[in-house]
Amino acid sequence: MSEQTGKQLSKEEKDARFEAELLPVLDPLYNFAYRLTLDEDDANDLVQETYLKAYRFFDYFEQGTNAKAWLFRILKNSFINEFRKKSKQPAKVDYSEVEGYYNSDDVEGEGGVASTTDMRTESVQDLIGDEVASALNALPVDFRTVIILCDLEGFTYEEMAKILDIPIGTVRSRLHRARNSLKEKLEKYAKSMGYNS
Amino acid sequence: MESRFTETHQKLSEDGHESECDKIAHLLDLMIDGEASTEEQAYFNTHIEECVPCFESHQKQKLLKGLVSGHLKRVIVPESLALSIKARIQETV
Ligand SMILES: [Zn+2]
């Protein structure tokens, strides 16, 4: 392994290594892109671009280091440099429509006659999920980003600082403010559902 | 009168019960994100054992994190995406 460092790999070897190390991050990366752009096509483009950039710089990527954080960082930079400019203020996406579409498989399931109790529980879960999604989407993109990285992807503060190019102190305060605004948005909903705030 | 005294007393005594709760508030995120040091954890846990408001804010903060980690739906990656990434990479010299 380490004997080979710096030696030219054949293109096949390089491609194989690239796929083995970086493609497993595709799912979280696409989800991150989607939460940033709120658009499937944009997320698609952004992820492709991220992988092409990563491929170009793959020689600088040290094997065994944090591939996920590295890719997230590239994606976030691409988003800031290109997508953010061109993206019109994200129109109010109809979330339930998009997510309903993605989940249509579970809903339709052939059995069809799933017990009503299960169905009911599931749709309550869906409601909460939709509500969390729309509260999150209503946040400024910087706030949305730290919440996704921390709560959904489980990055540490240190990793987040590297991905976002900001000091850890800024990560902490941004996360704190982000959570406060998310809380505010969700509290309205919680009240309407009869929870105590 | 008496109860009023107690409130004020609680807030200001031992130059500051209040500031201790403030410190706890600053540790909330560290605690729920697993970023607090051992000392911070000990300090935090001791405090919330006897301070109901701080105990409650801890519960709320955990709940909030759980809403995102447990309820936000993941979108499904289009099947074509991995294929087109592989294809474009193979074209790249
Ligand atoms: Zn307290």
From TrEMBL, chain A:
Q: What are the alphabetically sorted keywords of the record? A: Sigma factor, Transcription, Transcription regulation
Q: Where is the RNA polymerase sigma factor 70 region 4 type domain?
A: 131-181
Has the keyword Transcription regulation been applied to this entry? yes
Write out the GO biological process terms: DNA-templated transcription initiation
Which Pfam families is this protein grouped with? Answer: Sigma70_r2, Sigma70_r4_2
Residues covered by the RNA polymerase sigma-70 region domain: 26-88
Q: Which family does it belong to?
A: Belongs to the sigma-70 factor family. ECF subfamily.
- PANTHER family of this UniProt entry? ECF RNA POLYMERASE SIGMA FACTOR SIGR, RNA POLYMERASE ECF-TYPE SIGMA FACTO
Domain of life, per the record?
Bacteria
Q: Which GO MF term does the entry hold, naming one?
A: sigma factor activity
Spell out the protein name for this chain. Answer: RNA polymerase ECF family sigma subunit
InterPro entries, per database record: RNA_pol_sigma-70-like (IPR039425), RNA_pol_sigma-70_dom (IPR014284), RNA_pol_sigma70_r2 (IPR007627), RNA_pol_sigma70_r4_t2 (IPR013249), RNA_pol_sigma_r2 (IPR013325), RNA_pol_sigma_r3/r4-like (IPR013324), WH-like_DNA-bd_sf (IPR036388)
For this UniProt entry, which residues form the secretion signal? none
UniProtKB/TrEMBL annotation, chain B:
State the protein's name.
Putative zinc finger protein
For this protein, the record's InterPro entries field holds: Znf_put (IPR027383)
Q: For the Putative zinc-finger domain, which residue ranges apply?
A: 21-54
Q: Give one Pfam hit by family name.
A: zf-HC2
